[in-house]
Amino acid sequence: MLRSTLLAAARSGGVRRAVETNPLTRSVVDRFVAGTTPDDALRATRELADQGLSVTLDHLGEDTENISQATDTVQAYRRLLCALHRAGLAGRAEVSVKLSAIGQLLPADGDKIALDNARLICESAEAAGTTVTLDMEDHTTTDATLDILATLRTDFPWVGAVLQAYLRRTEQDCRDLATPGSRVRLCKGAYNEPASVAFRNKQEVDRSYVRCLKTLMTGSGYPMVATHDPRMVAIASDLATRTGRAPDSYEFQMLYGIRPAEQRRIASGDEGMRVYVPYGGEWYGYFMRRLAERPANLGFFLRSLISG
Ligand code: FDA
Fold first, then answer.
1. What's the whole-model pTM score?
2. What is the DSSP secondary-structure string of 162-200?
3. Could you identify the atom of ligand 1 that is nearest to the CA of residue 209?
4. Which domains, ranges and CATH numbers included, belong to the chain?
5. pLDDT tens across 112-139, in order?
6. What is the pLDDT of residues 81-109, one digit of tens each?
7. C-alpha to C-alpha distance for 49 and 272, rounded to whole angstroms
8. Nearest CA to ligand 1 atom 7
9. Is the ipTM beyond the 0.95 threshold?
10. Set 78, 92, 111, 135: catalytic member
């Protein structure tokens, strides 16, 4: 109930204004967001890289409603990729892109605009010597996002995608994508989805996550195990051992600011750990999804508003 309310608020303009304009919100946002500028993103990348972690950078923004905003987002990614290359960090950091930030939801030709824009970002990534992963948004965009992935991969075979274990369709999507060269980031899913398309209770989502993991680990792609759940991490490591995977043939991924000690612990062993680092001014939707994932985050947020 609380989760659904917060996820509905993530798409409400009124709540957004109240949260964004509260001066006390910032300190809580800073826990999950690396800053507002590309320099902030580079600084966070360097700090994480120095600790043996890899990074995927997300220029925050989603549900773009006008074409110039979509173009600005593409330019921001292109500048960021050049800066990563110049700073010698492209071997450590890739980028994650939400197609709705680069035009997917525009009323006329949204999918085509998003594809063309994603292609520009992929060209810059290739020139910088790194990769792109397409984030996955709500279920109404899954087919279109996977179609765009398939088209992009004809020119850029290294483009990765996110699959969400809470969707009933995802086991089949994992089977389709567990192929050579394919990079799949498996997460549980962060949107408010109806029971017709998604598992709604944690046990069902976790069971689906394990089934999907099995498919990806026994397949021939590159699984990216995106979870903070200690049980899922242990199961993934175990499956990797049992399927004879080398430690560099898969990786773990976690979000910036969540379980940082565990991120460093995993990175200090044989297995890889990549941190998803969001930066930029458009943090509202991302931040509200993090609150919805864990009631304790909401308590922390409300206490900071009350106590200053
Ligand atoms: P679960 O929610 O069961 O949490 C397990 C434990 O992790 C909790 O008990 C707590 O200790 C810790 N934890 C989890 N969330 C926390 C939080 N917000 N704050 C503090 N502690 C927390 N989703 C999506 O729909 N599309 C996408 O493209 C992506 N992309 C993505 C990339 C990466 C790298 C990650 C790690 C996650 C995503 N997600 C996502 C989000 C994902 O779907 C999911 O909502 C969160 O990862 C939380 O699920 P867990 O697997 O961590 O398990």
1. 0.95
2. EEETTBTTHHHHHHHH-STT-EEEEE---S---TTTB--
3. 51
4. 2-8+43-303 (3.20.20.220)
5. 999 999 999 999 999 999 999 999 999 9
6. 999 999 999 999 999 999 999 999 999 89
7. 12
8. 228
9. yes
10. 135
